[in-house]
Amino acid sequence: MMPSLDKFAGDLSRMWKLQEREPLHHLTWDWWWWLLMLDDEDGNPSGKQLMVLWSTKDNPKVSVSGTNWEPKGRPGFDDDGGISLDGMVCAWWYDGKRMYEPYIKHKCRMIVVSDDHPSWPGDSKFAGSGGGAVVPLTDDDMSMGLKSDLSEFWLNLSTDEFPEEVNVPRKMEFTLTPWNEPMSTARHATATYAMNMGYDILRLHGCKVAGNLDGKNVSGTAYFQKVCVQA
After folding, report:
1. Which residues are CB-contacts of 84 (< 8 A; sequence separation ≥ 6)?
2. Domain locations in the chain?
3. What secondary structure letter does DSSP report for 123?
4. pTM exceeds 0.85 for this model
5. Which of 95, 127, 174, 219 can pair with 116 through a Cys bridge, CB separation 3.0 to 4.6 Å?
6. Cα 59–28–104 angle (5° rounding)?
7. Which residues neighbour 192 within 8 Å (Cβ) at sequence distance 6 or greater?
8. Per CATH, is 9-230 categorized as 2.40.370?
9. Residue 29 CA: distances (Å) to CA of 57, 144, 178, 179, 231
């Protein structure tokens, strides 16, 4: 049996950075993306699934599943590397029988900080190893982040979509922890083509999930990727 990890492995230093390659107007698109596959209490082999992303795009007009979005310029950076951006939080929920789309489709400002930023709460001897967070500036908590010791991610979501549907949770809270070395080691892939077009992808192929959906405990597995595409 393969031993488990007590923290995520690999190079996570890119996790909370943007514009590591020169952005291209109309072409640069950045996102953090999770796919959670949750066990079904009734034994449905397909389980339940949540897909969620926090994104921004270098384009004055974007159509997202029928919603017009007009990002307000490129991300801004402070002197300590903190990022402010105009973005969207989008999510889709599958209850084992039906896909609910959108579970979330919210335009908002977001803050992205690593744990070595002065505004990060508390001090840690592990700061600078990959901890940090993306925090939408919304009334409800829809943040996602990684603890400084790399032991776990958190992921919080709230929605008021589908208010009459009992199978659509209003509030989701997840803790995502390492699985084993092959699955939970960060891996980076990149390619550059003509005119600086290309991509950068940081992946975690698998981790364990423990969560709470409107007070009901759930478990499962998850896949993560942070992506910059210029194409």
Report:
1. 75, 76, 78, 109, 110, 111, 112
2. 9-230
3. -
4. yes
5. 127
6. 70
7. 21, 198
8. yes
9. 4, 19, 28, 29, 9
**Would you place residue 23 in the very low, low, confident or very high pLDDT band (cuts 50, 70, 90)?**
very high
**Which residue type, as a one-letter code, is found at position 42?**
D
| Total Cβ atoms within 10 A of residue 97 | 10
Contact indicator for 207, 184 with CB cutoff of 8 Å: yes
What is the dihedral sign for C-alpha 178, 184, 186, 192? negative
Residue 225's CB is within 10 A of a number of other CB atoms, namely 17
Residue with tokens 């005119």: 195
Q: How many Å apart are CA 32 and CA 52, to the nearest integer?
A: 8
Query: Cα–Cα–Cα angle for 169, 100, 111, nearest 5°?
Result: 70
Check residue 222 and give left, alpha or beta (phi > 0: left; psi -120 to 50: alpha). Answer: beta
Residue pair 146/139 in contact by the 8 Å Cβ criterion: no
Task: Report the distance separating Cα 46 and Cα 94, nearest Å.
Answer: 10
In this predicted model, what pLDDT tens digit does every residue of 45-101 receive, in sequence order? Answer: 889 999 999 999 999 999 888 889 999 889 999 999 999 999 999 999 999 999 999
